[in-house]
Amino acid sequence: MKRFINTIRNIWKIEELRQRIVLTLLLILVYRLGTYVVLPGVDAGVLAAAKESQSQDGILGLINIFAGGAFSRASIFGLGIMPYITSSIIIQLLGMAVPYFQKMQKEGESGRKKINQYTRFLTVGVTAVQAPGYIATQITNIPGAVPDVGSYWYMQSIIILVTGTMFVMWLGEKITDKGIGNGISLIIMIGIIARLPGAFLFEVSSRLDSQGGGLIMFLLEIVFLLFVVIGSILLVQGTRRVPVQFAKKIVGNKQYGGVRQYIPLKVNAAGVMPIIFAQAIMFIPAAIATMGDQSKGGFLMAFTDHFGLWYNVTFAILIILFTYFYTAIMVNPNQLADDMKRNGGFVPGVKPGKKTAEFLDSVMSKITLPGSIFLAIVAIMPAVAKVLGVSNEFANFFGGTSLLILVGVVLDTLQQIESHLLNRQYEGLMKSGRIKGRTSSMQLQS
């Protein structure tokens, strides 16, 4: 406890770090307050009463979690940061397939600024497309939610939603530049954490009920959750270090190179993207089934139960497939091999060039299989928790996208804080070793 207090004091002594943390907290507070500001003309009471009787599952539930509940409240931040994430993914995929974007990625800082600008413009377009659908499916379809629906109200609401998303994006960028941690990830994490206290209290009350199993069952749940968190940390942090030897060069009286370094290939290079893609695909058969006669839905009706056996088996298989797909997009063995060759590096025992690319591809294939299986297990863990008697709300924190985002963002933020401490000759956050975030580069610097 004494060490923890000393660490807090050291953090507060560093003026720059203190200012960054305070600014981050203030910007997050602005975002949280904005999630409760309802669109003009919407009856919040009618909307809340209707939402209580509806279940927010599938991709809609995922969006609502990422938006911190603003999605279901028809807030000015109703679409949250999701349009920006969608735009970033599209630009990232274009960077893999379109030569123009590939060229920008290689232009350094100027190219990065151009890509960010394109992402912002695309975010405006994506939000403008999503806003009418959001209004039609989440607001105007509820009787009495909007007493006076007209063309002016539609246009006003679309403009406000687009502006709200751009403002949230600006908050995220300001946190990244002037605050601590990755702003976009922090905003998503805060939205997830906002749902935790209510779910926790509901779980405690249900367990202490006469039929809930008592305090012992609740403590067992917490222990189980702790092991799941530890497993998620191992999944996020796990790397396969490939040794790289650099040729020795002598320039004047100085020697360069001749040392061994490592390329940290992530066990889970795809992050949470396979879960997001798989969840979006799984929402399609559920939507088709609910559109028709539910009594004749047949096999498709099995996919409306997000804690059911068939849903989770199919979900796990899709995650494994998408993990291989997204890893192939994210990690380019040929580019890694070319970068090593250009910098005078080579993998001991492997010829530079094509042989190195084949070796790296073989290593990635071997570590991606256990990584994808472990990711699938983490993704279906909420269903396992539900089978063990955990409530629906609290079960969502036992795995899936929510837990992986929480773990990754916390590690990244703590890593930045520790860097500030170590740079000013203070002790780090841990007695031994250093905190490692998710952002370790897999490419050599040119």
**Whole-number count of domains:** 2
Helix content: 55-70%
Tell me the major beta sheet. 3 strands, antiparallel
CATH fold-type name of the largest domain? Preprotein translocase SecY subunit
Q: How does the helix and strand content classify structurally?
A: mainly alpha
Please give the count of helices: 17
Taken in chain order, the helices and strands follow as HHHHHHHHHHHEEEEHHHEHHH
- Neighbour order of strands in the largest sheet: 4-1-5
The CATH superfamily of the largest domain bears the name SecY subunit domain
Q: Short description, anyone?
A:
The protein is mainly α.
Structure description:
This protein is mainly alpha-helical and 446 residues long. The protein has two domains: 177 residues, Preprotein translocase SecY subunit (Orthogonal Bundle), CATH 1.10.3370.10; 234 residues, SecY subunit domain (Preprotein translocase SecY subunit). Helices cover 65% and strands 5% of the residues. The chain is built from 17 helices and five strands. It starts with a helix and ends in a 23-residue tail after the last helix.
Give the SSE map:
Blueprint: H1 2-13, H2 15-34, H3 44-52, H4 58-66, H5 82-97, H6 99-105, H7 109-138, H8 151-178, H9 183-193, H10 196-208, H11 214-237, E1 239-246, E2 249-251, E3 254-256, E4 260-266, H12 273-291, H13 309-330, H14 333-342, E5 345-346, H15 354-387, H16 392-395, H17 400-423
Helix pairs in contact: 2-8, 2-9, 5-6, 5-7, 6-7, 7-8, 8-9, 9-17, 10-11, 11-15, 11-17, 12-13, 13-15, 14-15
